[in-house]
Write a structure and sequence with these properties.
7-stranded antiparallel beta sheet, 16% helix, 38% strand, 3-stranded antiparallel beta sheet, alpha+beta
């Protein structure tokens, strides 16, 4: 019976796809940034005693090994999120890191992490926010956005994790400190 054979073939195909989804690697990021006020430059002196850096760790939350192929990260200080490009744009980004050689392997163990850190380099090529930039961002007149992309391979298929974080100035109390929070446009947060 042709109909039964087609139904059986479709069932096998769906089972294979489901197995690939449940058995593959799932690379997730965890952003790390020291809580506190944004550092800025005033009269060529860095205030708040540090250069703004952000790092993230990659973890494999899946059941198979993953080969990290490329990691890219970009910063934007913008008036609002609507001025970001409709799709994340990395070409020519001031911060792009290609991992050397054949990449890094992450085994399917929750504790396996690959730390990667980037110093903030803004679209104007500078490493620092100005005092006015920091005031605008903390006052809600502008937003600081960091977005990234991790390309990896698992079970012979390429996958991409795109993520976006937006600076949140906090409410001035210890239980709600300034920090980056996951957010941004929908297309900036996806996982294939």
């Amino acid at each position: 019976n042709a109909a039964a054979a087609a139904a059986n073939a479709d069932s096998v195909k769906r089972s294979t796809e489901l197995m690939a989804i449940t058995e593959r690697a799932w690379i997730v990021e965890e952003l790390s940034f020291p809580h506190g006020p944004l550092p800025f430059v005033q009269d060529n002196v860095v205030q708040n005693a540090r250069i703004l850096t952000v790092g993230f760790e990659l973890r494999n939350g899946g059941k198979s090994a993953a080969k990290i192929l490329n990691v890219a990260l970009r910063f934007h200080a913008v008036q609002n999120l609507t001025v970001l490009p409709p799709e994340p744009f990395y070409e020519g980004a001031s911060q792009t890191q290609a991992l050397a050689g054949d990449g890094v392997m992450l085994m399917p163990i929750a504790a396996t992490k690959v730390p990667t850190g980037f110093a903030v380099i803004y679209e104007n090529g500078g490493h620092f926010l100005t005092r006015q930039d920091a005031l605008d961002i903390n006052g809600g007149l502008a937003q600081l956005v960091v977005y990234g992309r991790v390309e990896y391979q698992s079970l012979q298929e390429k996958h991409v994790n795109q993520f976006c974080y937006v600076w949140y100035p906090g409410r001035g109390i210890e239980s709600d400190p300034p920090r980056f929070r996951k957010g941004g446009p929908f297309k900036y947060n996806s996982h294939t």
